[in-house]
Design a protein that fits this description.
Layout lengths: L2 E10 L12 E16 L5 E6 L5 E7 L15 H15 L10 E7 L9 H13 L3 H7 L6 H6 L5 E6 L2 E6 L10 E5 L6 H9 L3 H18 L5 H19 L4 H5 L7 E3 L7 E5 L2 H9 L5 E3 H4 L3
Parallel strand pairs: 3-5
Antiparallel strand pairs: 1-2, 2-5, 2-6, 3-4, 6-7, 8-10, 8-11, 9-10
Helix pairs in contact: 1-2, 2-3, 6-7
Length: about 300
Amino acid sequence: MPQHFYGHGKLLITGEYLVLDGALALAIPTKKGQKLTVAEAEKPGITWEGLKESGEVWFTFHLDYALFNQSQPAASENPEIRLLQILLAAQKLNPEFLKEQPSLKVTTQLEFHQKWGLGSSSTLIYMLAQWAEVDAYKLLELTFGGSGYDIACAGNDSPILYQRSEGVPQVFQTNFYPDFSDQLFFVYLNKKQNSREAIANYRKQPEARKKEAIQKVSGITETLLTVDSIFSFNVLIEAHERIIASVLNIPTVKQNLFPDFKGSIKSLGAWGGDFILATGGPEAKNYFRAKGYETILSFDEMIFS
């Protein structure tokens, strides 16, 4: 019988970058995620097929088990090398995984556009960890690295508070469905951000500046769960933007791209790409459409709740 696995996509509402160093972050699983199916096949080895949201083939290749006897390949954007790297790391965590070298057909199916930055890699790590029966956070550590909030989102059906305490992930389910959710929406900036490069830049910033920012952002995260008006929400996310801008020593996305926007804007995840959170009504959405941003999703369209 085929095995089926699923992981939710992710959005980091608060705590970007600082979550790596212990900040309390609010993260939300998205409605759309990724599926993985493992089935028996006749051809020896592993035949892998990745499908886009449309059902169109994204990539396909065949992994011979002879490749598993080679040294761990370096991180790569090439899907074949990337998957081999993850499978080898999973074997390191569980030597019984694929030990019998079964003939398999593995299919992944994205539910969101592959450029959206909602977690094509993190959902894959999470699902492969379930298949290999290993700790998903350890598998992430051996492969792509990162805070792990995206792994937590992949396996949760509700918003979460996420925090790394002495390197150990702490996950707490919470509620985040504000009364003013109809005034929250997400805009794709038409640019896929490289998270590893963004994190590398963050790592170069002064530690004292980060430490102070962690305390402030953790406080904003807690307060954000209790606000009952869009005005208070806007004040908090604008304060959050200023803090992260100060840490990274770069302008906010609103200053950089949308200085005349009348609502508030919150960057999500790695600054400079993927989605932003914006506030306002229909006229606010029209502002972004007029500037050529066509991918605009409402809170209910994006968020799993």
